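Worked Example 4.2. Consider the chain below.
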Amino acid sequence: MMQDLLSGWISPFRLGELGIMGMNRRNISYISRYNPRHRYPFVDNKLKTKVVAQKARLRVPDLLHVVETQHEIESIDNQIRDLNEFVIKPAQGSGGKGILVIVGRDGDQYVKSSGARLTLADIKRHVTNILSGLHSLGGRPDIVLIEGLVKVSPYFSAISYEGVPDIRIIVFKGYPVMGMLRLATHASDGKANLHQGAVGVGIDIATGRSVAAVKHNQLVTHHPDTGESLQNLVVPDWHTMLLLASRCYEVTGLGYLGCDIVVDAVKGPLLLELNARPGLSIQIANNRGLLARLRHVEGLEDHYLSHEDRVAYAVANFRHYDDAPADHGAATPSTSILTPQGATP
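Applying the procedure from the previous section yields the following structure tokens:
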């Protein structure tokens, strides 16, 4: 729970006062209430997500191959022989588990983003583990997706280390309510996953500007590996991402979900995956609780607004700085729910 994450820094009473949502409230009041169980397969299975998204004409990373049985592993060398860059991932994985990113070749070896070398036998072993359910939700037998590698946008190249950053946008009833940029680090092995050591940067819904940055729930101002400042960032194509995330409401039929988006250097924003149980650390990165915004949306009358109208409403009402104009984000929040790294709580 969020109370556990922030234990010792701020009282539970103060957390409630700031509108911080805990896991129990998220599960009971929002996930159980607004996410029909029969719609979960569309987000829990990345292959089904990709198929549904493509039918809705949402742009996604290229799917190169699918491996469904152990028998197919014997011929996987034929599928990846001519590929210099690719990503292997479990269809039902979570938290970045089981994702293998190959960024180049060195003779017969495959080079990871960290520089480590793998043999074909290593690749086959990894695929076998995925099929057996080692990385899947509940340990269920899984299938393997081999996707094209997303090229890091030049804008992000200096602030992400050995991996492609992604943007997580929480969408409630079709309204984008909170956003976060996730940056890979050496500790996260090139994956943009906060639990593995990535950096989370809160993003103002209205402007696409950075709000605060956290690593392991502690405030940071610079990327731990590149040394680049994480302050005053502006996410490119932000409005396009908001529109993409909002459309996922109709595509999935889920009222409360997390949309993960990557920015390809050539293709622009692409929908990476969806999550019916998005984590709560986004509140820490934004120095704001989710509850006020969720309750705001719950209080709206349903006029079957288009995704463009919902995004416009979110931009007008969920800006991070109440005293900042819509195209600027220079104001400073008056209250912090975090302690800067190295400071005394």
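The two ends are 20 Å apart (CA to CA). The chain has two domains: 2-57+153-317, 63-147. Compare this with Example 4.1 before moving on.
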